[in-house]
Amino acid sequence: MNKETLKKNLREIPDFPKPGILFYDVTTLFKNPECLQGILDELYELYKDKGITKVVGIESRGFIFGAALAARLGAGFVMVRKPGKLPADVEEETYQKEYGTDTIQIHKDSIEPSDVVLLHDDLLATGGTMSAACRVVRRLGARQLYVNFVIELTNLNGRKAFDEGTEITTLLPL
Questions:
Q1: Any catalytic annotation for residue 98?
Q2: List of E strands, the chain
Q3: What is the pTM of this model?
Q4: Which residue in 61, 81, 93, 152 is the catalytic one?
């Protein structure tokens, strides 16, 4: 996928959700068929030979490519959600954000010790949510895990939130 095509189709919204923040709106990538297919093709090429058995998508934009990629890889799809959204027994992780704490949950029976897991979300900023998801997936016993984002805001140093040795890929570093 041509990175310039991604950049050209990524909407930037200044001062959202508050003054001083430049928000990158990925919905414009989803509505463009060339971008949608190109991102999915590139993700597939990155992970087709890794033996992925489960793709974990982070609520909510991580569900979009996560589920499509899981289907293409012949893997299962697992959702990481905010509290109260999953109906069965959950494992959860509370983590620090810039302005307080948050919690994520995953079904306890969603990951097996034999699983090779790809965790996917749309954007890496400070890394809090995804690093919390990695800790939960590791506790559930995944054999191996990979982490992927469509976009990475490199000036926020989100990779520092992850354990050393975590393999992280991004399609569009900004």
A1: yes
A2: 11-14, 22-25, 54-58, 76-80, 90-97, 100-107, 116-124, 144-152, 167-173
A3: 0.95
A4: 61
